[in-house]
Amino acid sequence: MDTSETQVWLLVAAAVGVAAGLFLLARGFAGYRVEVRVGDMSSSPTDSIAAGEVRVSGTIEAAELTLVSLLQSRPCVYYHSTVGDPGEVQRAKPELNEERAVGFRVRDAVGTLRVFPRGARIDAPLRFEGETGALGDEPVGLDLRQGGPTRATEMDRETAAAELLRVRGPYEYSLLAGVGDRHGRRQYREWRLEPGEAVTVVGMAMPFGDLDDPVAANLGDTTDPSHDDPEVAADLAAAQAAGVLATDAASAWGNAAIPGFGIGRPVATPHLDPGAAPLPVASAEERARVQQTFEIAPETLVVVASDEVPLLIAHGTPGAVVQRGQTQLVVGLLGGILAIVSAMAFAFVVNGGTGR
Predict the structure, then answer these.
(1) Mean pLDDT score of the chain
(2) What are the DSSP calls for 257-288, one per residue?
């Protein structure tokens, strides 16, 4: 290898060092901000919180809905799945990128508190990572979701049995058509928060009745920008001004607005076609359980994101979150040193080592 080729490789290595160092530095400062925010507050018991900024910690408990993750079909309240070229560049910008969250409860020793994830910054652990093999074989553990991303938390016995016994068909590879490099190789990654795991939440506690749009607040979905689409917002405003927008759930959704209707045990008699088979109305015990699950009193405090207080959801206990942030900061500072040294090496090579 001649001198010019050596210089080119040195320049490339120095440029990569600068980029990697800056990336680690930015990640370190992000971890430091999380550490400071979590570490500067103490957790409040869920039965004694007051309106305002709060920190709560406990275990995740599913509310009325759970998500089904894209790559492993696991029940969760948050997932972020990416698929793309195994190359490092594609890792930073995957070709398929799906991220969703759904409202959940945090349970501590004294009770539960509902969290609405819209607009949250979510720190979740990496649960699955793999690549296609040399012969095109998929990594162990890959179980692509079939069907929609949400499920009712409580299934009736027949539905649960059918799901358990269902024979899964072939993967829906159409979902991944064109994803990967020219050899058909793909890298898979999935981050998740699952029920039963420890979690720390910092956000704004406010009465449920003060939420402008509880449905949108309950869903965090970066793969579907329609919530923020100005055309959709304009259409809704025009419909509301014209008086053609339904003012309540019963008018807008009909039978679907009846709690328990979707699982075949409505709490009230639905309006059905005369030829349809009648649905059994839920018992008093079932009705109480469904209403407790799906209905929240207006005065109940919930945790949300606000303009003044951003919402942070991080896996682990507060101590674990702080320790993780400290580690990221140290690594980030080392990355800063790497970026400085690489920049100096880059300048040295460009100037031909003469110090000009």
Answers:
(1) 79
(2) GSTTGGGT--SS-----TTSPPPPPPPHHHHH
